[in-house]
Amino acid sequence: MARTTLLTLPVKDHIIETLSRNSEMSVRELYQDLRKYFIEKLTAKYPHLSNKEVMAEVETGAEELGYQIPKESAITKWLDKENIREKVREQQRRPAALDRAWCISSCLKENIPGDMVPLLMEFQQTEGEGSKHLPDGEVLTIRVARWISFLYPMFQKNESVLNYIKKKEPTNQVNTLKFYVSWLASLYAKREQISEIMLEPFADTAELDHFFVNPDDVDIYDLWMKTFNPEEFEKHQKANNVFSPILHDDLVEILKMELTKQQVDIFNEWLRNQLLNMTEPQKAEKIEKKLLQQCPELPALINAWKMATNRV
Fold this sequence. Notes:
Blueprint: H1 9-21, H2 27-45, H3 51-59, H4 72-81, H5 84-93, H6 106-110, H7 117-123, H8 142-157, H9 159-168, H10 173-197, H11 206-209, H12 220-228, H13 230-242, H14 248-255, H15 261-279, H16 281-294, H17 298-308
């Protein structure tokens, strides 16, 4: 399928979000970033697809997700016509009033209820003392404070969200809830900033809204990391992708050899053990010895996998 000359709203949002981190990215780099974005979306939506099938979907435009890959020339034309780079730089040079540091007096102008002030004080950075619920160095802005004030009561009244948080952290639910509120508020604030650059009447937050319907479907922490700390997120993703379990048929195709179910299961146990090796090497070493006893041919499978995936 030929590349489209149209840029859909999700594509525009993603490009602006990317440029807000690095406004000097070339069109080629933006295009490659979009491809990577599409691959992540397809992999998340269709986990049963093999790598080859995912790439085939990406090449045909991923139309069923609404994420068609535009031509590089279409990206260039849109950036130039709408003066997007300069709008992003201007926002970075002169932040809007809403993106200044929060203080109690701002609550009056922004209609933030007074009973939310004690909560917002917990999120506020103080000199020489970090915030309890925001990442180190992050300043609580008026924009994020508005979203925290709006979202916090929704968290408290939503049974699905409360059960999700209880399952995540049964011993410290109050603090865990506040962490989730801060991550989600930051994401809503970022969507709002993007909509302002694009002169939209309101932000498209459908992806975030779904958290309140089914929290298990939306990984808020991953979304936050991908948006605000993409380098660390990419490292984490690479580790998970490299050592995530491989289906029987996919492993047979990679290694070009017949494998029993036991061999595939033990190989996947070895893959999982590589992640453990990053944090607990002594424990991982004991597990590997046990796996070698169960499957003497494991070293040959590992070497074949490394050769086939260029990890030698």
